[in-house]
Prior knowledge:
Layout: E1 2-6, E2 14-17, E3 26-30, H1 37-45, E4 52-54, E5 63-65, H2 78-82, H3 91-101, H4 114-128, E6 132-136, H5 144-156, E7 160-164, H6 168-174, E8 177-182, E9 185-189, H7 196-228, H8 237-252, E10 265-266, E11 273-284, E12 287-298, E13 302-306, H9 313-320, E14 328-333, E15 339-342, H10 355-360, E16 366-367, E17 370-376, E18 379-382, H11 383-389, H12 394-397, H13 406-418, E19 421-422, E20 424-428, H14 436-447, E21 452-456, H15 460-466, E22 469-475, E23 478-483, H16 486-492, H17 500-508, H18 513-516, H19 524-551, H20 556-559, H21 561-594
Parallel strand pairs: 3-7, 3-8, 5-6, 6-7, 10-19, 13-21, 13-22, 15-20, 20-21
Antiparallel strand pairs: 1-2, 1-4, 8-9, 11-12, 11-14, 16-17, 17-18, 22-23
Helix pairs in contact: 3-4, 7-8, 19-21
Amino acid sequence: MTGISLTFGGDPVFSELDLVVQPGDRVALVGRNGSGKSTLMKVMAGLVEADKGSIVVPPGKSVGYMEQDPKMEGFATLGDFAASGLEPGEMYKVERAGEGLKFDPARPVETASGGERRRAALAKLMAEAPDLMLLDEPTNHLDIEAIGWLEGELQATRTAYVLISHDRAFLRALTRATLWIDRGQVRRQEKGFAAFEEWRDKIWDEEDQQRHKLNRLIKSESRWAVEGISARRKRNMGRVRALHDLKAQRAGQIKRQGTAEFALDSAPKSGRKVIEAEGLTKAYGDKQIVRNFSLKVQRGDRVAFVGPNGTGKTTLLKMLLGQEAPDEGTVKLGTGLEVALFDQARDQLDPEMSLWDNLTSDPGMRVSGKADQVMVRGNPKHVVGYLKDYLFDERQARAPVRSLSGGEKARLLLAKLMARQSNMLVLDEPTNDLDVETLDLLQELLDNYDGTVLLVSHDRDFLDRVATQTIAMEGNGQAVAYAGGWSDYRSQRAPDAAPAAEKAKAAKSAKPKQEQKAKAGLSFTEKHRLEALPGEMERLEKEIAKLEELMADPELFTREPVKFKKATEALVERQEKLAASEEEWLELEEKSEAG
């Protein structure tokens, strides 16, 4: 690509962009939501024409693009579409990809979901195996097993690829170079995604230093101009013109996009026991969802639900929330629960309504008699001002939701979710389409949230960062609780239950034997409780340290007495919980050793 410029009639998306992709390249394409990643990929694929510049693909080389919204008119089945670019007799390639990506080639196109269509588009690209694959969020709508299959295929291929993904673990495992789009500029580093954040922060630090120096120079030159310009007018007009040039340079600098103003306000605390499920059993015909499953969720827990699509994660979640009845067993919900739900399908957003109307028509956000305000955690706020907190501008406020990107829809749904007070968050695939900076903010927000979190996700890195307990839906009614996040689950999982390809991988990252061995003398529940307690105690110690740091401010009591009172109560509560956890750990450890 040489001298590529593209504007869409407004500010440039790219200007004079030069870019080369070599055979065998494994490139991460990263940038904030809305920075132009997908647009650049479509330019590379020839689907969007640049205003100027040229693209050269050497003779005999092919470029393939995984469409986000594939057009399937004229095809009876997903398999027909996926095989449309292949030679006769190569249908086996589609069937193999279909098995790994978990879609049925015989599925009629008219009954296929959006996720199934995208998996078929990905299978088509994998089967065609072009010289360069352009992959835009290929892990969306894939479960963890299918992500693992795709990761293995991309590690083994000799084909070059450029990859957009929000999945940090996926990017770290696969990429050897990074393209970073930032304010219309594309930079390249010959290191994979693992080195991206350090590189980005270094460049931003250098920018800030240069901006600081420029501001100091402008200030100095402006002082000179005011103090002596009349006496030196003829001799120093060049210096005055240079001052104007400096100011123009500062005005021409493109400001970095800020971060969304995420905030959560906890409702009054729920009871200590949030959910107590005993002996849950559920089946649909011959399909067993869970069998004799028990779980206790306490206030402050972060419980993740993982497993292949179709194993019943959402069904189990609905039973635990009292929204669906089990065939057998009981569920007791704690007192004072106020639940906020983030749904994977984005059903809470009307695609035909504007962003403005989606907020103001929500009964929980409507302000009586005020059409331009929404209620945000108990306080009225102007609609546009609140949307700006989530990085939307005034022009977008009146645009229909269907015009938004996937990441922007996720941000809008988070805006609705975070306007409410809650003490339990239910997050169903919240990470889809979010950029890494927004994921960092969401994780930090959950770390500081006083309530309880139930999370369904296929993002392994996010699970490791957030979850204190993982419920693995392993099929045939097996739902097993493990302490910690995804990596902890993989290291604790019984070797016989893991696929052969994963056993060697799990062995490399396995914990020391003294942590892995079964605790003799303990019940199944006690064993997992003993494994979970160290993580809980570490989290409580961190929260106590943060509260003590806050209360170290000698003026906090007089300046913000309400905040001081809340912090004091929170500190006492966490200290009591830590003491109880330490006592419980000692009792279980003694029982284990006695056994």
